[in-house]
User: What shape does this take?
Amino acid sequence: MRVVENGMSQLSLAVDLAGLRLRNPTLNAAGVLGISSPLLRRVYEAGAGAVVTKSIGPRPRAGHPNPTVSAVECGLLNAMGLPNPGAGYFAEEIRKLKDVGVPVVASFFGESVEAFAETAMVLAEAGADALELNCSCPNVEEEMGMLGADPAGVERVTAAVKGAVDPPVFVKLTPNVADIAEVARAAEQGGADAVTAVNTLLALAVDADLRRPVLANVTGGLSGPALKPVALRCVWEVAEAVDIPVIGCGGVSGWRDAVEFLLCGASAVEVGTALMTKGLDVFRDIPEGIRGYMEEQGFGEVGEIVGLAHEG
Ligand code: RRO
Assistant: This one.
């Protein structure tokens, strides 16, 4: 309900994500503009509620050979292959962001339960306000496997990370499973403070002239507008399955998309591919658009919209 004081309506865009207070419900998605402190600082200064780093592993990793990205109908295909400078190096980038007051969500991965926990500890020690456990990258090697498709594995890794660090832990889920609700429940069971739904959808592009797949890795992850209806369905199912907050991700490019995710049960949204097509202005436009929607519809707080499409 909107509070009216001295004739002025008090409308708040602030949200609480498992104890992490954001000035508005937008973040960048992991992997987009997240590889250095100056870039992430720009994301925050453009208006994001908090910033999310590129997924960081225990040690430096080169990633897959080129081509690693391809524009496809209504989206983007990537097989970056988890390139990152390693947690030891990136800890310093997090410290620089904390020195200037930027709320940081550190996305991370490991190739074993121990590596997940150790990487999380390094990033938490550096001052990350929250951690996003990435068990859902579609571009991992066979031997690493897709942890996010194994509910028992997700529960085990989440519990190990929760036992190792203090900041809230968000678990990022993959849409590449038959039952995403089951994996979300496993994350909650392991102690996750929130879940992010979703990572990219496993996909492929082929070049008719070359008669070969476009990406050197053959398959990649699909993001952007093509992913949005899948992501909305995932957020819907996850929101019905768990009691922890859900962060929506997948094809958010304008305020209307963001509102749709909130209505399906997301407490905040991550924006990825749209940052490449529309630029940093999305972090001004989306909060402004949500504010306009709230004014028009008579809402005082973002939380009042969350999950409304499930009612009635
Ligand atoms: O680096 C990547 O290839 C990558 C990652 Br870690 C991820 O989580 N999602 C994605 O689409 N690409």
DSSP finds nine helices and 18 strands in the chain.
